[in-house]
Amino acid sequence: MLREVSYKTAAKIAAVAVLTVALAATVRAADDSTGNPVQAQIDHGKSTYASKCSHCHGPNMMNSGTITPDLRAFPDDKTRFVTTVKNGKNNKMPPWADILSDDEIGDLWAFISSRRKP
C-alpha cells in the first residue's frame, strides 16, 4: 500500500515537473533571450523588414535616390503605418495585407518605431 502511494506521488511530481518545464519553454519562446517581449517583437520586425521591406526602403530604413521615405522619420502613428502597409500607398507601395499577418505588421511597427530619429 505504501509503495502504491509512493508511485502515485512520484507520478504526480513528475507530471508537475513536466508541465512546469513546458510552461517555461512557452514563455521563453514568446520572449527573447533577455526576457523582454517588446525586444522579441522588435527582433521579429527586424527580420521581417530585412526580408520584405529593405529592398525598397533600404537596409537602414532609408534609400537615397528613390521615392521611398526615410522610415526613421515616420510619424508616431501606428494606425497610419498599419493602414499604409496593408493598403499600399499612392500606387507606388504595393499592399501587403495578403502577404503579412497582423502580428508581422505589428512587429514591423515595433522595429521601425524603435529606430525613429529623435
How are the secondary structure elements laid out?
Blueprint: H1 2-30, H2 37-57, H3 78-87, H4 102-114
Helix pairs in contact: 2-4
Distance between the termini: 71 Å
CATH level 1 class label of the domain at 37-114: Mainly Alpha
> Radius of gyration from the CA trace?
22 Å
Q: From the coordinates shown, what is the CATH architecture of the domain at 37-114?
A: Orthogonal Bundle
- Write down how many β-strands occur, each being a DSSP E stretch of 2 or more residues: 0
Secondary structural class: mainly alpha
Mean pLDDT: 80
The CATH topology of the domain at 37-114 corresponds to Cytochrome Bc1 Complex, Chain D, domain 2
Shape: elongated
Name the CATH homologous superfamily of the domain at 37-114: Cytochrome c-like domain
Helix content: 55-70%
**Main sheet specs:** none
Portion in strands: under 5%
Order of helices and strands: HHHH
Oligomer: single chain
**Total DSSP helices:** 4
Low-confidence parts, pLDDT < 50 over ≥5 residues?
A: 15-32
Organism: Bradyrhizobium hipponense
Keywords: Heme, Iron, Metal-binding, Signal
Signal peptide: 1-29
Protein name: Cytochrome c
